[in-house]
Design brief:
Elements: H1 2-29, H2 41-54, H3 56-71, H4 84-110, H5 119-163
Helix pairs in contact: 1-4
C-alpha cells in the first residue's frame, strides 16, 4: 500500500508541474486577440514605428535602448507569441498529457486496498487477519520451545559422547 501511495504522491507532483508548465506556456505563447473597440496591436506598433521614423533622435535613442535590452542579461526576456496553429497544436498536446496523468492517478487510487469495501467489511477482515496472526504467533512460539528442547537433548548427547572419552 505504501508503494501505491508513494506513486500517487509522485503523480500528483508531476501533474502539478505539468499544470504549471501549461499555464506558463498559455500565458507566454498565446497569440494576442483583438479587443472590440480597441486599436489592434499591429496598428499601434505600426503607428509607433512611423512616429519614430519622423523623429531621428528619438529613433537613435530607441535603438540604443533596444541594443541594451538584447545585451543586458539582467533584463527579463520578452515572450513572443506562438503562431496560432502551433499554439493550438501545442495546447492540445499539453491537454492530452494532463488528461493522461489524471487517468494514471485514478488508476493508482482504484488499486488502493479498501476501495469499494464498506467499513464493516474492512473491520471484519482486519479482525480475521488479527486472529490469523495470533495463531501463527502461537505456532512460532511452539516451534521455538521445541527447538530449545531439541538443542538441550543434542547438548546432552554431545556431552555424553565427550564423557566416554572419544
Amino acid at each position: 500500500m505504501a508503494d501505491i501511495l508513494t506513486q500517487v504522491q509522485d503523480c500528483l507532483d508531476q501533474l502539478l508541474n505539468q499544470m504549471h508548465a501549461t499555464l506558463y506556456y498559455t500565458n507566454t505563447s498565446c497569440p494576442p486577440s483583438a479587443i472590440e473597440g480597441q486599436p489592434s496591436l499591429g496598428t499601434s506598433i505600426t503607428q509607433q514605428t512611423q512616429d519614430l521614423t519622423q523623429n531621428s533622435s528619438t529613433q537613435r535613442a530607441s535603438e540604443a535602448a533596444a541594443n541594451t535590452q538584447t545585451t543586458d542579461p539582467s533584463l527579463p526576456e520578452i515572450p513572443h507569441p506562438a503562431p496560432p496553429e502551433e499554439f493550438i497544436r501545442t495546447l492540445h498536446e499539453l491537454s492530452r498529457d494532463l488528461v493522461l496523468k489524471e487517468q494514471q492517478i485514478e488508476l493508482l487510487i482504484s488499486r488502493l486496498p479498501g476501495i469499494g469495501i464498506s467499513e464493516k467489511e474492512q473491520i471484519a477482515r482486519m479482525q480475521g487477519l488479527e486472529r490469523e496472526l495470533e495463531a501463527i504467533e502461537e505456532e512460532r512460539e511452539e516451534a521455538v520451545r521445541e527447538k530449545e528442547e531439541l538443542v538441550k537433548v543434542l547438548e546432552g548427547k554431545i556431552l555424553g559422547v565427550g564423557a566416554l572419552g572419544w
